[in-house]
Design a protein that fits this description.
The chain is α/β, with parallel strands linked by helices and 431 residues long. It contains twelve helices and 20 strands.
Length: 431
């Protein structure tokens, strides 16, 4: 469920609203392209996931750490932090964002395959909940950094369970050939090595097998393997307090074919898989929380019918604003903001202004009549939209807006061209 729905506009014609705000009013005030997020949807998606876990496992200590990479806007993180969410981070910058948004250090997880020594030192000084170690070389570097700081940070060993899943090969992270984590054959030795170090405090093991997973079977297969590993480590006489199960549960991209399981079914599967095991659990949902809480608004520039029969709808948003379709062949439902008169649908290629053929949002998409100047909405765009946006082609960074009830606020403004140019300098010899 989200809080984007059709309601009558000023003329009585049905149009898309976000909570109590007309999307057309936001576009008029801020311009397009622009991302719009619903506070009510963010809060609902987080609480439904959290409550499902608590209901299925009432006796367990649970950490729900929002995956900041999905949408890293401070206002989004703060909205979730006020509900008790932690943060799953993959850079010093994301740790700083989580802290600035009000997430306490003891609820921050630091992951990632390429943490620098400086980032490790920052995480240690910050006092994050755990540092997920993904290679033996990183384990060795972390021990050196910790010794230099006179610290003993809590760590988890991220394990690659060799279970592949996800909506696209580029977001599947759990197969043996992917760059993430250590193999099961290495995990026991590295955990024991960490336990023997006076500068490291291993508290658990972690896994994350991919994103946009719409079937519980691969998740359960990975979790069964992780349970077995915990049992082996404990049999070796090692202490394992926490099992970090990552994120990855998919979302329905409207009329796309996925039909992901509900959080209650996911929670029941976790409870069944880990029944009888005394261990704390951590989860790292991202897309599940924010995807359907956001839309991207764009304006139709013109229609471009071609003699070959193709019909291009050119909009003012581009791949630098929403990269997922170009990068992952991802599907987003596209619709006019005004419902219109229900005229006959025609096939359109929806494209942006960037000088690449890859700047294409959809091919042969059936759409009702759209004219130049009409607003169109790209739905389910709250995850990996604004957080992956750029200024490619020297296009200003897309702004973001947060709606709460009948109010809205710009939470990232669009820079001017002058501001973009002012960040760069010309060497003296070119003056």
């Amino acid at each position: 469920m989200d809080h984007f729905e059709d309601r009558p506009g000023p003329t009585g014609e049905a149009e898309l609203w976000c909570e109590g705000v007309r999307l057309a009013d936001i576009a008029a005030a801020v311009g397009t392209p622009v991302y719009v997020y619903s506070t009510a949807t963010l809060e609902r998606h987080y609480t439904v996931f959290r409550d499902a876990l608590q209901a299925a496992m009432p006796a367990r200590r649970l950490l729900v750490a929002y995956a900041v990479k999905a949408n890293s806007n401070l206002a989004v993180i703060r909205t979730l932090a006020r509900l008790g969410a932690g943060a799953d981070t993959v850079s010093e910058g994301e740790i700083r964002r989580a802290l600035a948004a009000g997430v306490p250090p003891e609820r921050i997880v630091f992951s990632g395959v390429g943490k620098t020594d400086a980032e490790l030192a920052f995480a240690i000084r910050t006092g994050v909940c755990e540092i997920n170690v993904e290679a033996e070389a990183e384990l060795d570097r972390l021990a050196v950094v910790a010794e230099a700081l006179g610290a003993r940070p809590a760590i988890a060993i991220r394990v690659n369970p060799d279970v592949g899943a996800g909506g696209h090969a580029k977001i599947s992270t759990g197969k043996a050939e992917s760059k993430f984590g250590v193999s099961f054959s290495e995990a026991r030795r590295l955990y024991a090595k960490a336990a023997a170090s006076p500068w490291l405090r291993p508290v658990g093991v972690a896994c994350h097998i991919g994103s946009q997973i719409t079937d519980l079977a691969p998740l359960q297969a990975a979790f069964v393997r992780m349970r077995s590993l915990v049992e082996q480590l404990r049999a070796d006489g090692l202490t394992v307090e926490r099992l970090d199960l990552g994120g990855g549960l998919g979302v329905p991209y409207f009329d796309a074919p996925e039909a992901p399981p509900l959080p209650a079914l996911y929670a029941a599967m976790v409870a069944e898989t880990l029944a009888g095991m005394d261990i704390d659990l951590a989860f790292e949902p991202g897309r599940l929380i924010v995807a359907n809480a956001g839309v991207m608004l764009a304006t139709a520039i013109h229609l471009h019918p071609r003699a070959e029969g193709r019909r291009f709808l050119v909009v003012d948003a581009a791949m630098n604003d929403l990269l997922r379709p170009s990068l992952y062949e991802a599907y987003h439902r596209i619709r006019p903001v005004r419902a219109g008169d229900g005229g006959p649908e025609e096939a359109h290629d929806v494209v942006g202004p960037v000088c690449e053929t890859g700047d294409t949002f959809a091919r042969d998409r059936m759409l009702p009549p759209v004219e130049a100047g009409d607003l169109v909405a790209f739905l389910s765009a709250g995850a990996y939209g604004a957080s992956m946006s750029s200024e490619y082609n020297s296009r200003p960074l897309v702004p973001e807006v947060l709606v709460s009830g009948d109010r809205f606020s710009v939470i990232r403004r669009r820079p001017t061209h002058e501001e973009m140019l002012s960040r760069e300098t010309v060497p003296d010899w070119l003056a």
